[in-house]
Amino acid sequence: MASTAFPSTESLVTEGNANISAPSVTPAFSPLYQQIKGLILNSLRVGEWKPGETIPSEIDLAAHFKVSQGTVRKAIDELAADNLVVRRQGKGTFVSTHAERQVQYRFLKLMPDSGDLSQEGPAQRQIVDCRRLRAPSDVARALALRPGDAVLQVKRVLSFADKPTILEDIWLPGAPFKGLTADRLRGYEGPMYALFETEFGVRMVRAEEKIRAISADHLHCQLLRVEPVTPLLSVERIAFTYHDLPMELRRGLYVTNTHYYRNELS
Amino acid sequence: MASTAFPSTESLVTEGNANISAPSVTPAFSPLYQQIKGLILNSLRVGEWKPGETIPSEIDLAAHFKVSQGTVRKAIDELAADNLVVRRQGKGTFVSTHAERQVQYRFLKLMPDSGDLSQEGPAQRQIVDCRRLRAPSDVARALALRPGDAVLQVKRVLSFADKPTILEDIWLPGAPFKGLTADRLRGYEGPMYALFETEFGVRMVRAEEKIRAISADHLHCQLLRVEPVTPLLSVERIAFTYHDLPMELRRGLYVTNTHYYRNELS
DNA sequence: CAGTGGTCTAGACCACTGG
DNA sequence: CAGTGGTCTAGACCACTGC
Question: What CATH class has A11-95?
Answer without folding.
Answer: mainly alpha
